[in-house]
Amino acid sequence: MTTVQPTQPSFWNDTGKTGLAAWIFSTDHKRIGLLYFYSTFGFFLVGVLLGLLLRIELMAPGRTIMGPQTYNALFTVHGVVMIFLFIIPGFQGSFGNLVMPIQIGARDVAFPRLNLFSWWLYIIGAVIIITSLFTGGGPPDTGWTFYVPFSSRTGTNVSLAVFGVFVVGFSSILTGLNFITTIHRLRAEGMTWGRLPLFVWSLYATAWVQVLATPILAITLVLVMAERLLGTGLFDPGRGGDPVMYQHLFWIYSHPAVYIMILPAMGVISDVIPVFSRKPIFGYKMIAFSSIAIAAFGSLVWGHHMFTSGMSDTAILVFSFLTFIVAIPSAIKVFNWVSTLYKGSISLDAPMLFALSFILLFSIGGLSGLILGAAATDVHVHDTHFVVGHFHYVIFGGAGFAFFAAMHYWLPKFYGRRYAEKPAIVAWALMFVGFNVMYFTMQVLGMKGMPRRYYDYLPEFATLNLVATIGSWILVAGLIVMLVNLFRGLFRGEPFVGNPWGGATLEWTTATPPPTENFEEEPVVTHGPYDFRGTGIP
Amino acid sequence: MNSAYLTTTTEAIDPVFMFIFGACLVLLVGITAAMVFFVVRYHRSRAPEPTSQATGNLWLEVVWIVLPTLLVLVMFYYGWAGYLALRNVPKGAMEVTATARMWSWSFAYANGRTSAKLYVPVNKPVRVELVSLDVIHGFYLPAFRVKRDVVPGMKNYAWFVATKPGSYDLFCSQYCGTGHSAMITTVEALPEAEFAAWLEQRTGKGEPPGHELLEKHGCLGCHSLDGKPGIGPTLKGIWGRSETVLSNGAERHISVDEAYLRRSLLEPNADVVKGFQPVMPPFAGVLTEAEVKAIVAYLRTGGAAAAKLDGRKLAQEKGCLACHSLDGSRGVGPTFKGLFGAKVTVQRGKTKTIVTADEGYLRESIRQPEAAVVEGFQAIMPTDPALSDDEVTALVEFIEGLR
User: Fold this and answer.
1) pLDDT greater at residue A207 or residue B311
2) Are B35 and A277 in contact (CB < 8 Å)?
3) What's the CATH code of the domain at B57?
4) Higher-pLDDT residue of B309, B311
5) What is the domain extent for residue B335?
6) Number of domains within chain B
7) pLDDT digit string (tens) for A315-328?
8) What residues of chain B lie within 8 A of the CB of A339, using their CB?
């Protein structure tokens, strides 16, 4: 491939508005992508801080640094921030926006103004959620699940918080709609469905989940507000309502939502592993198809959150069965990723280390999910720290580490500068060790019977809780090293030009940083996304 | 299941754990080993160029679709079979009702005895009916691998059997607010004889047999002892009371005496007190002559007067002590120690005032906790509409005694 000599200015230097307005009113998908990145990643850091405080409180039995009411509010806010303000909007908003249009050879998304509006909705929702922490009865203390009847009785500011989540939900729906349309309508010439990068496939599957499932969350949250403000009694057994029905409604969205979190992560991994192995992805079609299968079957397994709720045994039979079925496409992906390494030429750069550790951490999370999917074993570990550990293995070890991989892999492309390799590897090693010390210990605690959302615990759980807390410090130390190195590099590091990773997808054919309309001229695609023979790597 | 040998819940669940864990461990070690081997073997330092451009292999992919499918189906089957063991209560199980409220447990036994810990005999299956008075709680016994949510308005149950005497943790597993992590108690498994003795032992000692009979036959579900109206007339001060009754559609005035009580027990619908429905089942053939005599004798003493309520026991059973300590330590709510007669700053509406925690204040705090909340505490205390006036009095007297 020949080096591109840019004739158009990069998207950083295009003319028009300046200052803040050039960003918050821009309809350029790359600028919106960076807006999303900094806002969602900022909330990630807030969530990390809250999580760290929770772990410090749990370091020893009894009161350590806060009282029970504060603790309950903190784990609620930790969950709401991490889920609704970081990981659900994070991938689609940041890397989906930054990379997807370029990967399909488009100048922008299908509806650039709607894209900007989605970010604004997200920010408005976030502001409402933050307002709910400091007004009314104080931060909500219901857990991110807002289970009734507790959430309809508590005096804390639940109504405003769920309204904020409601608004953020619309941002998610509109982004999904935008991406589906973009991927259908704006692919460049020659970009057939069989040549779509797997990251785009995963975004496509995710977008359908966002469009179809999020409205159910929206209506559920409206019902919670109605319960609190109007006393409708829909979930109150004293007035013919049913609290378990709330759980169904909540999980009909919130289980598919975990696929909104993990599918794009799987897409990142499917893009990174071939590049650093210099070998085509093994089983492209099967990986693309499994994304769709996960999105489809994943929408039918919500009831596995409710095996102890008292719903019928028939429902438990069906949901347990479907849960095991949805494990299969995930297993296929893992086998295909590992096979891609076979007979490759593997380079262990930071994005690759994050991707490889994703496979391991996601596998631990996925396999512990089998214990939760089996009805007999779920009963013991349900609502214990085992679930907390499982969830963090999948969503932090999985989606989170993939997010870090994407940050190291793609952000230099948009800044034209890169991080230093050695500190990045040190940071990865610290995070990997700290992560496992913390969350594996939590899974053991759950097996021993420690319930989740416990402010205080019996002495028998003390040692392991201390170990988990120490793990959290190692993890945060690694995170700090990563942040300093990455952002220092993006603004002051070595130049990053051309195609240093040797990628074969379209974003590596355009200038670094890309021009406003992404390509000098509309690209014509002639080979698959992982066909490295044409990329002219030395 | 062999009827001579009872499979415990733990014995039903643990093999499923072992099987799934084992299979997962094999998979995880396999995946990790392959990954590490490939990374080392095909590292760019050893393999400067890829030696394959394979894009897939149909047979290999079929293999790793089919094998995991078979494996997860087996896991599903074992998981389901084990779960059924949790649902099928063995015949002859002892019944206990667990009542959960924010944030305490109370257990009621067939003979009317209640306790804050769950006492069970060893080697006897126990079926626990789960009742919630407020929000969703979770009944969790880690040692027995048993968990079931306690959902208001829903009839959930769990069962377990303890094979060794001892004390086992009982947790609330479903998040229920400030006191969630303090909502813990124990299962006390006792040898059979010891359990039988415990069950018969009455804590409110000297309670007359008549009172026990009223509990046993469920009379108190409709007839209160404290003057509160129920489905039937209260039994407080019933002896000698003048009532208007309907006998075959005709009103007449009577004074309650032994003959009237007797007839009301055996043929309750012969003379129904005006204003009440003729819904009481007749006890002719159910009560022995001796039992009728005992009940009548008990009611002659005035019922409520005889049943002196134990404030401490009440505070424990109603869950007060989950938040209010007895030893001066700070809990979710103010400690009871030294509370009576103390001057406390409270938030009443929008204004702060200093009040003396006297009988009037304590009564109000029990009935309407949010009306005047002590400074520094959250307005989160629940009310219990089922609390009778006599029970409130007993609680206040108990707190007074802790001065």
Assistant:
1) A207
2) no
3) 1.10.287
4) B311
5) 311-400
6) 4
7) 999 999 999 999 99
8) 57, 60
The ipTM is 0.92
Find, in chain B, the residue whose alpha carbon is nearest to that of A538.
Answer: B49
In angstroms, what separates the C-alpha of A525 from chain B's closest C-alpha? 19
In a domain? residue B2: no
Most confident segment among A434-443, B300-309, B351-360: A434-443
Report chain B residues whose CB lies below 8 A from the CB of A285.
Answer: 56
**Closest approach of A23 to chain B, Cα-based (Å):** 41
| Nearest-by-Cβ selection for A154 from B75, B145, B177 | B177
Q: Does A310 touch chain B (CB under 8 A)?
A: yes
A318 touches chain B (CB under 8 A): no
User: Is A533 an interface residue toward B (CB < 8 Å)?
Assistant: yes
Token pair belonging to B375: 């400074």
- Of B28, B54, B87, which one is at a domain's C-terminal end? B87
Q: Does A458 touch chain B (CB under 8 A)?
A: yes
pLDDT at residue A108 greater than cutoff 50: yes
Q: What is the mean pLDDT of residues A123-147?
A: 92
Predicted pLDDT at A169: 95
Taking the C-alpha atoms of residue B365 and residue B342, their distance in angstroms, rounded to an integer, is 14
For residues B293 and B234, state if they share a domain.
yes
Distances in whole angstroms, Cα of residue B152 to Cα of each of A132, A158, B139:
28, 21, 13
What's chain B's average pLDDT?
85
Q: Which chain B residues have a beta carbon less than 8 Å from that of A342?
A: 38, 42, 52, 54
Among the three residues B200, B224, B250, which one is the final residue of a domain in this structure?
Answer: B200
d(CA A259, CA A294): 8
Q: Could you tell me the CA-to-CA distances from B39 to A281, A344, B54, B55 in Å, in that order?
A: 15, 9, 17, 19
Q: Distance between CA atoms of A396 and A388, rounded to whole angstroms?
A: 11
Same domain, B40 and B110: no
Which tens digits make up the pLDDT trace of A1-44?
444 555 778 888 876 667 888 899 999 999 999 999 999 999 99
**pLDDT given for residue A5 in this prediction:** 56
Provide the b/e sequence for A203-212 (b: ≥16 CB within 10 Å). Answer: bbbbbbbbbe
Least CB–CB distance from B181: residue in A149, A283, A457: A457
Partner-chain contact A453 B145, CB within 8 Å: no
- What fold does the segment set A29-532 form as a domain? Cytochrome C Oxidase; Chain A (1.20.210)
3-state secondary structure of B322: helix
Domain of B349, CATH number, reads 1.10.760.10
Residue B148 resides in a domain: yes
pLDDT score at B229: 65
Q: Is A538 on the interface with B (CB under 8 A)?
A: no
Task: Answer whether A277 touches B (CB < 8 Å).
Answer: yes
Please name the residue of chain B whose CA is at the shortest distance from the CA of residue A281. Answer: B55
A95-122 average pLDDT score: 96
What does A473-537 look like in DSSP terms, one character per residue? HHHHHHHHHHHHHHHHHHHHSEE--S-TT---SGGGTS-SSPBTTSSSS--B--S-TT-GGGGT-
